[in-house]
Amino acid sequence: MNITLEYLKPEDLPQYKALIDEAFGNSRSLDEYNKRYDPNHSAYKILVAKDEAQLIGTITIYMIDLFTFDFQPTLEIYNVVVAKEYRGTNTASLMFDFMKDFAHEHGYQSASVTCLTEATRAHRFYEKMGFEKLDRERFLLRI
User: What spatial distance separates the first Cα and last Cα of the chain, rounded to whole Å?
Assistant: First the structure.
C-alpha cells in the first residue's frame, strides 16, 4: 500500500462521487459534480487520499476567514470518508494531519467538524485527532 495525498483533480470526480455515494448514499449526478467542481476555488479544498491511482479517502476543507469571534479564522471540515476496505490503515489520520499543517501554514486558529449523533466511532476518532466535543446545538434551514 502506497498512500499519497493530493487535491482532487477533475478527472478523479467519478471515483470521488463513488466514494461519497458509498459513505452517504446517492449524491448529485456526475454531471453536476463536473459543472460545479472548481479546483481553484478560494473557499474550499478537497483533499483526497490515493493508493496508487485508486481514490480511497477524502476530506473537504472550507476556509472561513471572518474575524468575528475569537476562534476565527477557522476551518469547517466536511465529507470525511475512507473507503471501507481502507479503514484502520491510518488514512484518515494522514488526512487530518495534512489539514492541521494546512491550518498552521495559513493562519487558521481552529477547525470544526459536524458529525451525526449516532456515529460514535467517528466521534472517538475525532477526539483522538484532538477535537473537543462541544455543548452546542446545530440548526439547519433548508431554503
Answer: 44
> Which stretch of DSSP H or E encloses residue 22?
helix 13-24
Measured from the Cβ of residue 93, the count of other Cβ atoms closer than 10 Å reads 13
* Rounded Cα gap, residues 49 and 7, in angstroms: 9
Question: What is the C-alpha to C-alpha distance for residues 55 and 33, in angstroms, rounded to an integer?
Answer: 16
Q: How far apart are CA 6 and CA 58, in angstroms?
A: 10
**Cell numbers for 78:** 466536511
Burial class (CB in 10 A: 0-12, 13-18, 19+), 130: exposed
Q: Tell me the pairing of strands 44-51 and 54-64.
A: antiparallel
pLDDT digits (tens, 9 = 90+) for 51-108: 999 999 999 999 998 766 665 788 999 999 999 999 999 999 999 999 999 999 999 9
DSSP state of 9: P
Which residue in this structure is represented by grid cell 474550499? Answer: 44
Question: What one-character-per-residue DSSP string does 100-138 give?
Answer: HHHHHHHT--EEEE---TT-HHHHHHHHHTT--------
